[in-house]
Amino acid sequence: MTNVAECNSVLVAIGAxxxxxxxxxxxxxxxxxxxxxxxxxHIISRSxxxxxxxxxxxxxxxxxxxxxxxxxALSPKAxxxxxxxxxxxxxxxxQTRWGARVIDMDLLGYGARVLPDRAGYEQWAGLDAxxxxxxxPKELILPHPRLHERAFVLVPLMDxxxxxxxxxxxxxxRQMHAALDPAELEEIHRLVD
Length: 193
Prior knowledge:
Blueprint: E1 8-16, H1 25-35, E2 42-46, E3 50-52, E4 63-72, H2 76-89, E5 104-110, H3 118-125, H4 129-134, H5 151-160, H6 173-178, H7 182-186, E6 189-190
Antiparallel strand pairs: 1-4, 1-5, 2-4, 3-4, 3-6
């Protein structure tokens, strides 16, 4: 049994815009969240499900997105490996950066950890749009270098962790959400869970 005192708060984003084993993006997201506990990521809370425009625009059908707050006594790399294993089991194939997918699971934050270090984080967070679309890091970057910019991430996070503070920016999810363009927020629609 895992000692709760040894656990870390783990924020995970889950999205899908293609049907897979569960026959719908919504089913894929729900099934992926349910598998977290089987991979040593113990669910504390799951957000509502949201319909969001595909990112980048025009790259495919709309997504279903959610976020999950977990506790884990794993290293961040081990937690990411568990997410990739779930994706693989659900049929995810990494062929095109930001392409359509049957499931996408991102490790958004791991307590207050910054990986590989602040300079490494800032390098990835500072990439321009062209570099973002063509480059992928070879190591784990925490917190996720784009989470503060993306309504499809921050809206679900508001359900489960509005007071989580970004360890580099020093802003809570609530503050980052408030800074979003209202037009982006209008494009996100809560689904019936």
